[in-house]
Specification:
single chain, 115 residues, mainly alpha, 7 helices
């Protein structure tokens, strides 16, 4: 006799003659899971538990990123932060100075002065 498990596990026979029926009746879940896992490993660089410490960590011993203190002191951005003694302190508010404005002469006044 045939058990119920065998009946449930038995696959239907379906024609895969054209592309539409092939896509409809083909199971590709296991392939997609495998490819996703493989791509994840490539992105992250693999499983870190399988790698050695030398591969995971790197110690930079070069002097490229270290700048001497004398160069730091001469930088423009640092000089802006220092106190400038050439600038006098602000004593108080002084009102605006009154300058005499010259009046513009009208055309009739210019003609009179030219005659």
């Amino acid at each position: 006799m045939v058990s119920t498990e065998q009946i449930l596990n038995k696959r239907k026979r379906v024609s895969k003659k054209n592309k539409k029926s092939w896509r409809k009746h083909t199971e590709i879940n296991d392939v997609e899971k495998f490819l996703e896992a493989k791509l994840r490993e490539e992105r992250t660089g693999g499983n870190p538990t399988e790698k050695k410490n030398k591969d995971l960590f790197y110690i930079d011993k070069s002097d490229i990123f270290q700048t001497p203190k004398s160069k730091l002191a001469s930088m423009k951005c640092h000089s802006d932060l220092q106190i400038d003694t050439r600038v006098a302190p602000v004593v108080g508010r002084v009102g605006p100075s009154k300058k005499k404005k010259k009046k513009k002469k009208t055309l009739s006044q210019q003609n009179v002065s030219m005659e």
